[in-house]
C-alpha cells in the first residue's frame, strides 16, 4: 500500500521537461557500440530458417555479442558476456550455423546460447573445469532433433585436461563427454558429416608440438581412432597452426615450415601431410598467412591462402581431392600493392572469395580464376583493412556482394557493390576523455574591434567604415539566402536555427588507444575527423583543454598534444616528463583568460609550483590522504586531511568550475529568506571502510582544510559504485545500503541529498551577519562558519554509477541531478525540486510550504519516465557524463561516453526561451492570411452599406 | 523459524548437492499483455552485502520463454547465517517490476520469497510467493511469478493542431456567432411575415439597448469600420458628417437601414 502511495506521489510531480516523441533523433544522438569485432567470430547468418535476410553477428574484444542489421548498421541486440564470465578470458568465441535459430557464444568458462532473432537467452552454462578453448555447432541434423536446433560441441581446457562435450541445443545439458588427462593443450574441435575431430597439441620431447587428432563418434562420444602428426619441427607455439578447418566436408589443418617456404596441409582424419611450395614472387618477406575456407558441410573442399607482405598481398586457391586427400593449387590471385582482405561466402555448394583492396572489390569463384564482379571503391582513408566478412547473391551471370570490412582504426564499414553503405566507429567504445570544442568563428571580429578600441577616434571611425564597406561583399550572398531561410524556417522542425547558440558545437573525444575523434553534435554525432594522436594502447588522458580553434590533450605521462579542432591536424606536442601523473588540475590564470594546468603526482604533490597568486589546490594522494596546497609551494602541503584508520578515500568532488548562483537565498512561503551557504572552495570526500562496510562523506573547506560536515553510513556495499555530486549549496550521494542486525531498516539503493544554509533560521545570516569582510583564513569570526545542513534520504530503485549536475549559463534554470543507471542502461535527470531536503515528513505540506513547491516526503523515490533523458534507448557502459551551458539559459548540453556515445540536450525548466516545435509558423501565417481575406471580403460590404446608409438617410 | 532453519541446515548437509535454482517467470498481465516484447537487456538481479567472499550480486538474463533462471545459488559453510537478497527486475524499457525478498539458506536452498516494499523496513514482508515446506523435505527448484506494476511513459505528448481545437476557442466561437447574426439576420427578416416584421422593428426600436447600440453605431464617436473600409480618408471629417446628419436619423435610421 505504501508503495502505491509512493508511486502516486511520484506520479503527481510535475514532469520536469520530458522529451517529445518527435524530438528523438533530432536533439539526441546515440552510437550503440560493440567494440572491435573478432576476426574469426564474425559472420552473416539468417536469424531463423524462415527469414530470407541475414544479419551480421559478432563478438567483440569487449565480449559483447551483437547482431547488426546489414541494411543500415543499426544494432538489433547485444549481450555482455564479460559480466557472466568468472575468469578473465583471452577472447570470445561466437558460432552460428544456418538452420539454427540461436548463436552460441563463449568467454572464459561461460558459454551461452542466444536467440538469433532477438538476443534472448536460450541456455547458459558455466564450467568449473576450465575455460572454453573452442566450440562448434554440429551442422549434421539428427533425425530426433527438433528443427532449428543444433547441438554444440565444446572443448573445455584446463592445465591438465581437455574435455570435449556435446551440449544439447535446446537446454545446454551435456549429452556426452570425452575427457583426456594427458596434459596436452586442448586446441580446437572440428567436424565432418560423420565424425568429430578433437585436435590437441602434444608437446614433443625436445621442442615444438605434435598435432594430435582424436576422432570421436558424434552420437556416443567414444573415441574412434587417434592420430599424431609429426609437426614438432614446424609448430613451435599454438599460434603456428594457421588454420583448423571447421565444419567443412573435408576439414584440414594448415601450418607452414619455419622458413615459410612451404605450406603443410593435412586433411583431418588422414595421416598424410601435403607439402605445397609457397611461390613468393613479391621479393619481400611474408608477414602474415591467413587461410580462408567455407564453414559449411556441403561446400566444395576449396580454400584460399592469403599471403601478406609489408607492401602488398596475394592469394592462392587450393583444391582438396576428397578421394585421395591430395591438395593441389588451382590458381593465384595476383600480387597487388596495398592491403587486401579476403572473405569467403557459400551459395549452395559453390564457394566464392571476395577480395577487398584499397581501390577495388572483386569476386571470384573458387573453381576458376575468372572475375565474376569488380567494383571500384571510393577513395578511402589511410586505414588498413584488418578483416572482412561478405555476403553474396548470384543472379544469372552477375553477382552482388556486401562486405563488412573492419579497419585498423576501429571503423567497421559495409561496402555493397563498391558503395559504402554505413560506417560504425567502433573505436569510440574506448573513449576516456571528452570535451566540447570552441570554434574560432568570431575571433577575426574580436580582433578588429580590439584595433578600433586602441585607435584614435578618427582612425577608429575610418577603420570601421572600411570594415563595413568590406562586409558589403557578403550582402548579395546574404540576400540570396533569405528566401531559402524563410522557407526552411517554416518547414523545418525547429523554429529558429539554434546552431548559433552553441547547440551544435563539436565534441572532442580521446580514446584509450591514442585516437582523437571530433563528433558533430549537430549532425547525429557524425565523426568529423579522427586522427591517431599517439601510438599507444594505454592512453590515460587526464584532461582536455580547449581554446578557440584548438584543443590540448594532457595524458598522465606529462606530455601534451595540441590539435586544430576543425581539421584534426596536430599543431604541437610537448615531451613527457618522468613522473606519472595522478591527475591534472586546471585553473584560469589571472593575467590572461587562458587556462593553465598543473600535474599532480601519485603522492598528491603538484609537479610544479603554480603561479596563481590567490590560488589553492586540493589533491588526493594514492595513500588516501587529501592535501591542500597554496601557490608557489609544491613541497609541503598547507593542510592534510587523513581519514580515520581503515578508511580509504575513493572519490573527491567539488563544485563545477562553471556554477553560477542565481539567488543567494531561498525565499520561503512567508517571504522570509533562508540564506544559502555558498562557498566556492568546498570539496566532498568519500571514504569507505571495506571491513566494517561503512562509507563516510566529509565536506571540507578547500582553503583551510577544515571539516565542515561529516556523515557516516553503515551497511554500505563498498564494492558497488558510490557516486556523488555537488553544486551551489547542496550535494548528493548514492550507495547500496543494507540492513543491520535487526531488519527494521531498509535494504536497497539510497540517494541522500543535503543542503547547506548559513543558519537554521530564516532572515538570519549567522556569524556572517555582522561581518563586513570575510576570509576563511584570516578572520575574527570563527573561520569558516559551519553550515547548517539539512539532509533527506530516498530509497531509489536502481544503482547510480555516476552523478553530475546540469549546467546553464546563468544558473537561473532549475538544476537536474544527472545520474547514470548502469543496470537499466539509462541516463536520468532528477529535478532538484523533487530532491528538496525540506520536504515535510509525515504530514502534508502547509499552504506556505506548497507555495515554495514543497510536497510531502515519501521515502521511496520512483524514477518517473519523464526524467529519463535517454528515454527508451539502451545507453550501455557509460562511465562519464558531461554537461555544458549553451547561450540559451534554458538548455544544457549533455554528452555521455565510456562505452556507448550519447549526446542530448536537457531543458530542466522547459525550453522557455526557444520557440519549440509546437509553435507552428505555418499556423501563424495561415491565421494572418485568413484575417487578411476576412478584411478583404468584409471591407467592400461595409463600404456599400455605409454608402447606402448615407444615400437612404437623405 | 529458527527451528525450521536448523532442520533445513541438517537437510542440506545430508543431501550435500542441493544448491537450488530460482526461476522467475513473467506472467501475462494488464500492463504487459505480451511478456515476449520485453527487450533482451531485461535482467533480474539478486543483491545483498558482500559476505564471506561469495557472489553478492547475481544476475540472470531474460530467456526465450520470458523468465529468469538463477542456477546454483551460492552456498557457504553450513554454520553460516542465511542470506537475504533483494530481487530486482530491470528492463531498459518501460516496464516496472515489483521488488522481491529472497532468503537463501547457507547451503543454497531457498527459504522463502516474499514481495517487499521499497522505502519500508526489510522485515515488512508482503505477499508470500514461496515458502519452504519443511515437512515435504526438499524442493530444490523454485518457480515464482514476477509482478509488473507499472509502465513508464517516457514521452511528452505534443498538442496536435486540429481544426476542431481551433473551433473550440471561445474567441472563434464568438466570431462565428457574430458572423452568423450578421449574414443570417437580414435573410431571416426578409422571410418574415410583414406584420411580424413591423412588430419586431417596433420592439427593437423601443429596446433601450439596441437603441443605444444604434446610436453608437451610427452617431457617436469614431467609425472604425468605416475608416477601415476606406469610406472616408479623414476620420474626423467622417465624424462631422455623421453628426450633422444625426438629427434625421435618430428616429428613422435603423428602419431605413434594414429596409
UniProtKB/TrEMBL annotation, chain A:
Transmembrane segments: 922-942
Range of residues in the leader sequence: 1-18
Domain ER membrane protein complex subunit 1 C-terminal intervals: 727-951
RNA-binding among keywords: no
Location(s), subcellular: Endoplasmic reticulum membrane
GO CC, alphabetical: EMC complex
Quaternary assembly: Component of the ER membrane protein complex (EMC).
The name this protein goes by in its record: ER membrane protein complex subunit 1
UniProtKB/TrEMBL annotation, chain B:
Any one cellular-component term (Gene Ontology): EMC complex
Keywords on record: Membrane, Signal, Transmembrane, Transmembrane helix
Positions of the UniProt region annotated as Disordered: 233-259
Subcellular location: Membrane
Bilayer topology: Single-pass membrane protein
Biased composition (Polar residues): 233-250
Pfam family, one: EMC7_beta-sandw
Domain of life per record: Eukaryota
Domain ER membrane protein complex subunit 7 beta-sandwich per the UniProt entry, residue ranges: 34-174
Signal peptide positions on this chain: 1-19
Protein name: ER membrane protein complex subunit 7 beta-sandwich domain-containing protein
Amino acid at each position: 500500500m505504501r508503495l502505491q502511495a509512493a508511486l502516486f506521489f511520484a506520479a503527481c510531480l510535475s514532469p520536469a521537461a520530458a522529451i517529445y516523441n518527435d524530438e528523438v533523433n533530432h536533439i539526441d544522438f546515440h552510437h550503440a557500440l560493440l567494440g572491435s569485432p573478432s576476426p574469426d567470430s564474425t559472420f552473416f547468418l539468417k536469424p531463423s530458417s524462415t527469414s530470407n535476410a541475414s544479419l551480421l553477428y559478432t563478438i567483440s574484444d569487449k565480449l559483447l555479442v551483437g547482431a547488426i542489421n546489414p541494411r543500415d548498421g543499426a544494432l538489433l541486440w547485444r549481450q555482455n558476456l564479460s559480466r557472466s564470465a568468472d575468469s578473465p578470458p583471452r577472447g570470445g568465441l561466437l558460432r552460428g550455423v544456418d538452420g539454427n535459430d540461436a548463436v552460441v557464444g563463449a568467454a572464459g568458462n561461460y558459454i551461452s546460447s542466444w536467440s538469433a532473432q532477438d538476443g534472448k537467452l536460450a541456455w547458459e552454462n558455466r564450467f568449473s573445469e576450465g575455460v572454453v578453448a573452442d566450440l562448434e555447432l554440429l551442422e549434421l541434423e539428427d533425425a530426433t532433433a527438433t528443427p532449428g536446433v543444433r547441438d554444440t560441441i565444446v572443448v573445455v581446457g584446463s592445465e591438465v585436461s581437455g574435455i570435449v562435450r556435446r551440449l544439447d541445443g535446446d537446454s545446454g545439458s551435456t549429452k556426452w563427454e570425452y575427457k583426456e588427462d594427458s596434459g596436452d593443450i586442448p586446441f580446437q574441435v572440428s567436424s565432418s558429416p560423420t565424425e568429430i575431430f578433437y585436435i590437441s597439441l602434444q608437446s614433443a620431447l625436445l621442442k615444438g608440438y605434435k598435432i594430435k587428432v582424436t576422432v570421436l563418434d558424434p552420437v556416443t562420444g567414444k573415441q574412434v581412432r587417434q592420430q599424431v602428426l609429426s609437426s614438432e619441427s614446424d609448430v613451435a607455439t599454438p599460434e603456428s597452426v594457421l588454420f583448423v578447418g571447421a565444419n567443412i566436408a573435408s576439414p584440414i589443418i594448415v601450418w607452414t615450415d619455419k622458413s615459410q617456404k612451404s605450406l603443410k596441409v593435412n586433411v583431418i582424419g588422414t595421416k598424410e601431410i601435403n607439402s605445397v611450395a609457397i611461390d613468393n614472387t613479391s621479393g619481400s618477406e611474408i608477414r602474415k598467412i591467413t587461410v580462408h575456407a567455407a564453414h559449411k558441410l556441403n561446400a566444395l573442399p576449396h580454400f584460399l591462402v592469403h599471403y601478406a607482405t609489408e607492401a602488398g598481398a596475394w592469394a592462392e586457391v587450393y583444391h582438396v581431392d576428397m578421394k585421395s586427400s591430395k591438395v593441389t593449387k588451382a590458381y593465384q590471385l595476383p600480387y597487388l600493392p596495398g592491403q587486401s582482405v579476403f572473405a569467403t561466402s557459400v551459395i549452395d555448394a559453390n564457394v566464392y572469395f571476395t577480395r577487398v583492396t584499397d581501390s577495388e572489390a572483386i569476386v571470384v569463384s573458387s573453381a576458376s580464376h575468372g572475375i565474376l564482379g569488380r567494383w571500384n571503391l571510393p577513395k578511402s582513408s589511410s586505414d588498413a583493412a584488418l578483416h572482412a566478412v561478405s555476403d553474396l547473391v548470384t543472379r544469372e551471370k552477375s553477382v552482388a556482394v556486401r562486405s563488412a570490412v573492419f579497419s585498423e582504426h576501429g571503423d567497421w564499414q559495409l561496402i555493397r557493390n563498391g558503395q559504402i553503405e554505413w560506417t560504425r566507429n567502433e573505436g569510440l567504445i574506448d573513449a576516456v576523455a571528452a570535451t566540447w570544442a570552441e570554434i574560432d568563428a568570431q575571433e577575426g571580429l574580436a580582433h578588429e574591434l580590439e584595433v578600433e578600441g586602441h585607435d584614435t577616434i578618427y582612425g577608429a571611425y575610418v577603420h570601421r567604415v572600411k570594415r563595413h564597406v568590406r562586409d558589403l561583399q557578403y550582402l548579395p550572398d546574404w540576400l540570396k539566402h533569405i528566401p531559402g531561410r524563410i522557407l526552411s524556417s517554416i518547414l523545418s522542425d525547429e523554429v529558429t536555427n539554434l546552431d548559433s547558440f552553441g547547440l551544435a558545437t563539436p565534441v572532442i573525444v580521446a580514446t584509450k588507444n591514442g585516437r582523437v575523434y571530433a563528433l558533430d553534435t549537430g549532425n547525429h554525432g557524425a565523426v568529423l575527423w579522427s586522427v591517431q594522436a599517439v601510438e599507444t594502447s594505454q592512453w590515460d588522458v587526464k584532461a582536455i583543454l580547449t581554446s578557440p580553434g584548438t584543443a590540448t590533450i594532457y595524458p598522465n605521462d606529462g606530455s601534451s598534444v595540441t590539435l586544430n579542432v576543425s581539421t584534426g591536424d596536430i599543431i604541437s606536442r610537448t615531451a613527457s616528463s618522468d613522473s606519472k601523473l595522478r591527475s591534472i588540475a586546471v585553473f584560469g590564470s589571472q593575467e590572461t583568460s587562458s587556462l593553465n594546468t598543473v600535474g599532480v603526482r601519485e603522492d598528491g604533490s603538484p609537479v610544479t609550483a603554480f603561479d596563481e597568486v590567490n590560488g589553492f589546490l586540493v589533491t588526493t594522494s594514492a595513500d588516501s590522504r587529501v592535501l591542500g596546497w597554496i601557490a608557489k609551494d609544491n613541497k609541503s602541503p598547507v593542510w592534510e586531511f587523513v581519514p580515520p584508520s581503515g578508511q580509504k578515500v575513493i572519490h573527491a568532488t567539488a563544485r563545477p568550475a562553471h556554477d553560477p548562483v542565481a539567488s543567494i537565498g531561498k525565499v520561503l512561503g512567508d517571504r522570509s529568506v533562508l540564506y544559502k551557504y555558498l562557498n566556492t572552495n568546498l570539496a566532498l570526500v568519500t571514504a569507505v571502510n571495506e571491513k566494517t562496510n561503512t562509507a563516510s562523506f566529509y565536506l571540507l573547506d578547500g582553503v583551510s582544510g577544515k571539516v565542515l560536515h561529516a556523515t557516516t553510513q553503515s551497511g554500505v556495499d563498498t564494492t558497488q559504485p558510490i557516486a556523488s555530486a555537488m553544486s551551489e549549496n547542496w550535494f548528493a550521494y548514492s550507495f547500496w545500503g543494507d540492513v543491520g542486525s535487526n531488519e527494521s531498516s531498509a535494504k536497497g539503493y539510497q540517494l541522500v541529498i543535503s543542503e547547506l544554509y548559513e543558519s537554521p533560521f530564516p532572515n538570519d545570516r549567522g556569524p556572517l551577519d555582522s561581518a563586513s569582510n570575510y576570509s576563511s583564513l584570516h578572520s575574527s569570526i570563527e573561520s569558516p562558519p559551519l553550515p547548517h545542513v539539512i539532509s533527506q534520504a530516498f530509497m531509489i530503485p536502481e544503482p547510480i554509477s555516476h552523478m553530475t549536475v546540469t549546467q546553464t549559463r546563468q544558473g537561473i534554470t532549475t538544476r537536474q541531478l544527472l545520474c547514470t543507471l548502469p543496470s537499466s542502461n539509462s541516463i536520468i535527470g532528477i529535478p532538484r525540486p523533487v530532491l528538496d531536503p525540506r520536504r515535510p515528513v509525515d504530514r502534508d505540506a502547509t499552504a506556505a510550504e506548497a507555495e515554495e513547491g514543497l510536497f510531502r516526503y515519501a521515502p521511496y523515490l520512483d524514477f518517473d519516465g519523464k526524467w529519463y533523458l535517454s528515454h527508451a534507448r539502451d545507453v550501455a557502459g557509460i562511465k562519464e557524463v558531461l554537461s555544458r551551458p549553451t547561450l540559451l539559459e534554458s538548455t544544457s548540453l549533455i554528452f555521455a561516453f565510456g562505452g556507448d556515445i550519447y549526446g542530448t540536450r536537457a531543458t530542466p525548466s522547459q525550453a522557455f526561451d526557444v520557440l519549440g516545435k509546437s509553435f507552428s509558423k505555418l499556423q501563424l501565417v495561415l491565421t494572418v492570411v485568413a484575417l487578411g481575406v476576412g478584411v478583404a471580403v468584409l471591407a467592400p460590404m461595409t463600404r456599400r452599406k455605409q454608402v447606402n446608409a448615407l444615400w437612404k438617410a437623405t | 523459524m529458527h527451528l525450521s532453519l536448523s532442520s533445513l541446515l541438517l537437510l542440506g548437509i545430508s543431501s550435500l548437492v542441493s544448491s537450488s535454482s530460482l526461476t522467475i517467470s513473467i506472467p501475462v498481465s494488464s500492463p504487459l499483455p505480451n511478456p515476449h516484447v520485453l527487450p533482451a537487456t531485461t535482467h533480474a538481479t539478486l543483491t545483498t552485502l558482500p559476505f564471506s567472499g561469495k557472489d553478492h550480486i547475481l544476475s540472470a538474463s531474460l530467456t526465450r520463454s520470458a523468465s529468469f533462471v538463477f542456477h546454483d545459488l551460492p552456498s557457504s559453510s553450513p554454520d553460516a547465517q542465511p542470506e537475504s537478497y533483494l530481487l530486482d527486475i530491470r528492463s531498459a524499457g518501460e516496464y516496472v517490476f515489483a521488488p522481491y525478498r529472497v532468503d537463501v539458506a547457507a547451503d543454497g536452498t531457498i527459504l522463502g520469497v516474499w514481495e517487499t516494499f521499497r522505502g519500508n523496513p526489510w522485515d515488512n514482508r508482503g505477499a508470500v510467493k514461496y515458502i519452504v515446506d519443511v515437512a515435504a523435505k526438499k524442493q530444490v527448484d523454485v518457480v515464482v511469478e514476477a509482478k509488473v506494476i507499472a509502465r513508464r511513459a517516457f514521452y511528452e505528448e505534443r498538442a496536435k493542431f486540429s481544426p476542431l481545437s481551433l473551433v473550440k476557442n471561445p474567441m472563434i466561437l464568438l466570431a462565428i456567432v457574430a458572423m452568423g447574426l450578421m449574414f443570417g439576420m437580414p435573410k431571416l427578416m426578409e422571410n418574415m411575415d410583414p406584420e411580424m416584421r413591423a412588430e419586431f422593428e417596433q420592439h427593437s426600436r423601443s429596446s433601450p439597448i439596441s437603441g443605444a447600440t444604434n446610436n453608437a453605431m451610427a452617431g457617436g464617436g469614431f467609425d472604425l469600420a468605416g475608416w477601415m473600409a476606406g469610406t472616408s480618408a479623414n476620420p474626423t471629417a467622417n465624424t462631422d458628417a455623421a453628426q450633422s446628419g444625426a438629427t434625421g436619423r435618430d428616429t428613422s435610421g435603423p428602419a431605413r437601414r434594414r429596409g
